[in-house]
Write a structure and sequence with these properties.
By secondary structure, the chain is α+β, with helices and mostly antiparallel strands. The protein folds into two domains: about 40 residues, no CATH class; about 140 residues, Beta-Lactamase. It is built from eight helices and seven strands. A five-stranded mixed β-sheet has the order 4-3-7-6-5, with helices on both faces. A two-stranded antiparallel ribbon has the order 1-2. Helix 4 runs antiparallel to helix 5. The termini are far apart.
Length: about 230
């Protein structure tokens, strides 16, 4: 009888997954190489893999806990800010205070707030008018309010941060339904800082708060005009 080839052995084990369960003593006789190239038995190799996976899970869990604690602290400070300002604060004061909060707690290489009504923050160089060109470039927000995050097309990067910027990655969030009130954008020199899977829950809450405030100001003004 001819010897089985390596592929035949693999195929046999794939179709008879219970083989080692029925023959546990064979496991102790098997040897494999560890990442350093040293020959170890299969049980030790499996243990090393589990230990490495546990280390990775521990790091990920620590990151999740740290993010949760950070987000809780951010929301507490934001809540306190809203209490101090109240939604009836003058629009220049409200927007300026909100932008100061964002710059302090969400530091990035670049930040830009584009508003349809520039009078909401006309004294800040990082607050500018939401132009027709920008509306056209980000027309996708009309049908989808999901933030754009990652290495965006250069044309969009320049439209928000200017021609002289060296933005490698960014996140852009619409303010209001279909971005009717503008955009909030963060940019970085690091192409990996902002990526498509980036969690943006807190940032989305910030733009919702700003949109709600602007809506309130507009509706309040309209009510006064009608009275």
């Amino acid at each position: 009888m001819s010897e089985m080839t390596e592929r035949q052995v693999i195929q046999y084990l794939q179709t008879h997954s219970e083989f080692f369960a029925n023959n546990p003593k064979l496991l102790n006789a098997l040897t494999v190489a560890n990442p350093q190239g040293e020959v170890v038995n299969l049980a030790d190799r499996k243990m090393l893999q589990l230990q490495e996976k546990n280390k990775q899970l521990t790091v990920q869990l620590k990151q999740l806990v740290n993010n949760a604690q950070r987000n809780e602290g951010l929301m507490n400070r934001l809540f306190q800010l809203l209490i101090e300002l109240s939604m009836n604060a003058p629009k220049e004061l409200f927007v300026t205070a909100l932008v100061s909060f964002i710059k302090k707690d969400f530091p990035s290489d670049y930040f830009q707030l584009l508003l349809a009504d520039i009078s909401f923050g006309e004294d800040d160089s990082q607050i500018s008018l939401y132009t027709a060109e920008q509306r056209q470039l980000f027309a996708g927000f009309v049908n989808n309010s999901t933030p754009l995050s990652g290495r965006l097309p250069e044309l969009k990067m320049r439209a928000i941060f200017g021609n002289g910027s060296q933005v490698r990655s960014a996140i852009v969030l619409p303010i209001g339904t279909a971005a009717e009130h503008g955009l909030m954008a963060f940019g970085s020199d690091d192409e990996h800082k902002f990526h498509p899977d980036l969690a943006s829950d807190v940032l989305q809450k910030l733009v919702h708060i700003l949109a709600a405030y602007i809506d309130g100001q507009i509706n309040g003004f309209s009510d006064q005009q009608l009275s």
